[in-house]
Amino acid sequence: MKKIHLGIFDIHTPNQMTQGLWTHPANQSTRYKELAFWIELAQVLERGKFDFMFFADSYGYPHHKRELSYREAVYTPSNDPMLVISALAASTKHLAFVTTASPVYELPFPNARRFSTLDHLTNGRIGWNVVATGGISGAESFGRSGILPHDERYEQAEEFMEASYKLLEGSWEDDAVIADRGRRIYADADKVHVIQHSGKYYKMTASHASEPSIQRTPVLFQAGSSDRGRDFAAKHAEGVFLKAPTIEALRAQVQDIRKRAAAYGRGEGEIKIFTGLSTVVGRTREEAERKLAEYKAHRSREAALLTYENATGIDLSALDPDAPFEQIKTEQGRTHTERYTKHSGKVQSVREVSDNFAEKEFRGIVIAGTAEEIADQMQYWVEETGIDGFNLERYVLPGTHIDFVDHVVPELQRRGMFRQEYEEDTLRERLFGKGNTRLPNTHTGAAYRFSNS
Ligand SMILES: Cc1cc2nc3c(=O)[nH]c(=O)nc-3n(C[C@H](O)[C@H](O)[C@H](O)COP(=O)(O)O)c2cc1C
């Protein structure tokens, strides 16, 4: 049986996935600003032999509806997730960490230095989620008048990757560091190359600040499933987070990415595909469903619709509920417009879309049941779609993940679907096998390696 990979998908704010759930008495998510909170969670996940902990990130909040945003904590307040990672690495041995850094806001040089630093400090347990962020609320904070059009953001992301590969793969040769006390030579300057980059979005003359780390390029993830997003994923991503409304749509997206990856000369299995999974575990199905209903009672519909607007630019509450939801154009994120158009298989009304979104928000597959039922469903989705793993989503923190680790993980292990022990050290090896610490030669980033020939 195919062994799966598991991560959790979280964010450093009180609310995620179900707006309003921060008010649930069992939810400790308002502790998101405490180091101890994240350490406790990381240790739970390491006990459950999880592959990684993934932190989404974004700047800004839906500032056109300030009162609602602050009242319901819709993406605000939020902290920088990157800063907690070295502390989490120190309190775990194996768990890896993936965090978002967006080409829309960051610059290649400091970004590469941060990831190299984390790769050193975590001993290769770091991944980078590259997103062509669509939300406009952060743009003004960076002095911009707005965001670039959708496909142009991916063009910008392409150039960001090129500049990053030059720094991470092409600046320092493997033997540049000599560290010979006797000869008083730390590094050989002839083997540290100056990168010249002059493109449409970025200009840079620099040597990479950090010496080579174990993985060099952090494991690359991507999370946009628009047409352009999938092409970007097929070229760059080693891990892809996909969400689709039906099993058929997910299967089609998985096949599409793998086909596009082959066209970029990448081998079978060079991309691991994850989908979102929300679980509620009970001793019986009824108990789990009761628990889920209790979580749902804490929802805020108005806050949920605001997150839709923030992601897509579309205010569902301002549209005629009986109008068909079609011919939708957005320059923000398209994953969640196409979910109700291209990938839904039928024309839905605005009311149907609003109801569905308020019910599910950005969640992936939702399963409430016993550990056996959850494992059955997970197995079914893997077999039917060809995905490689799941990204677990919170209802309440840390309770949702403690339940999963205590009850579902042993069931997956019993079926041979999940590791009993950690076997590899770096994140890339965990996903692609021992010895694969660096980007494979077939990856586009490998072309930027320094070569004497
Ligand atoms: C699992 C997952 C994680 C995501 N993480 C982030 C994130 O951290 N920051 C962000 O701005 N967008 C994030 N997104 C949103 C997508 O990257 C978003 O769709 C993006 O705007 C890409 O555009 P596209 O969907 O039109 O391709 C995430 C999406 C998914 C499914």
UniProtKB/TrEMBL annotation:
Matching InterPro entries: Diverse_substr_monoxygenases (IPR051260), Luciferase-like_dom (IPR011251), Luciferase-like_sf (IPR036661), NTA_MOA (IPR016215)
Molecular function (Gene Ontology), one example: monooxygenase activity
CDD domains: Nitrilotriacetate_monoxgenase
One Pfam family recorded for the sequence: Bac_luciferase
Tree of life domain: Bacteria
Residue intervals of the Luciferase-like domain: 27-388
Claim: Flavoprotein is one of the keywords in the record: yes
Keyword entries, A-Z: Flavoprotein, FMN, Monooxygenase, Oxidoreductase
Positions that bind FMN: 57, 100, 150, 154, 225-226
Gene3D superfamilies found in the cross-reference section: Luciferase-like domain
Protein family: Belongs to the NtaA/SnaA/DszA monooxygenase family.
Name this protein carries in UniProt: FMN-dependent oxidoreductase, nitrilotriacetate monooxygenase family
